[in-house]
Design goal:
The chain is an all-alpha fold. It has helices spanning about 5-35, 50-65, 70-90, 100-125. It is elongated. This is VanZ family protein.
């Protein structure tokens, strides 16, 4: 079966929009998780569950951002800044939250893992016209 170029373009355009929608959803979930006045998720009683949540929240935004063709230099700077700022806001502004430097570490590890996976996947799929660094 042959696929027309127009059909392939339409499918790739839909894929890009799906990645972008996933990226926006991950951003909203992350922002809710780190800036809500109370802890966003339930206290499950498992050691380090909060750190794993931070890792996944920030890692998923990094990965999905790269897949959605957000320039890496802007994406990663914004994520690292948000990792630090969110804990400062939790410590100084949100009375029922507490800033935790180990949350920042989990955020940074998540960003690194998500970016590594994102770079690996984007490079392997050779997205035409996608300059990961945004130069």
């Amino acid at each position: 079966m042959t696929v027309s170029v127009a059909g392939a373009t339409t499918r790739s355009g839909v894929k890009v929009w799906l990645w972008r929608i996933g990226f926006v959803a991950a951003c909203l979930l992350q922002l809710y998780g780190v800036y809500s006045p109370r802890q966003a998720g339930p206290d499950v009683g498992l050691p380090l569950a909060d750190k794993v949540a931070h890792l996944f929240l920030f890692g998923s935004v990094a990965f999905l951002g790269l897949k959605a063709a957000v320039p890496a230099r802007w994406l990663l700077v914004a994520l690292v800044s948000n990792a630090v700022i969110s804990e400062l806001v939790q410590h100084f502004v949100l009375p029922q939250r507490s800033g935790d430097p180990f949350d920042v570490v989990a955020d940074l590890v998540g960003i690194a893992v998500g970016a590594w996976l994102g770079f690996k996947v984007v490079r392997s799929t050779n997205v035409a016209g996608h300059d990961m660094m945004g130069a």
